[in-house]
Design a protein that fits this description.
about 70 residues; mainly alpha
């Protein structure tokens, strides 16, 4: 039985992506990369909604971090 997993980690540069590609290959996993080209204003609204729903063990994302 197999299970699909989504890693929503940003992978903002090629080196990060290559490290995970290699880990998946070495571990015998197949993988696909999906790029979602979502406008920044929509992404920020989603982050704001997520921040509002956080529990006490979660860390909010502020605007400065988001813009980075």
């Amino acid at each position: 039985k197999s299970t699909n997993v989504v890693l929503d980690l940003g992978f903002s540069n090629l080196e990060q992506r290559e490290r995970y590609y290699q880990w998946a290959r070495d571990s015998g996993y197949s993988f696909e990369l999906h790029f979602l080209d979502i406008p920044q204003d929509i992404r920020w609204k989603r982050v704001e909604l997520r921040n509002q729903a956080l529990d006490q063990n979660s860390i909010p994302v502020d605007r400065k971090t988001f813009d980075w």
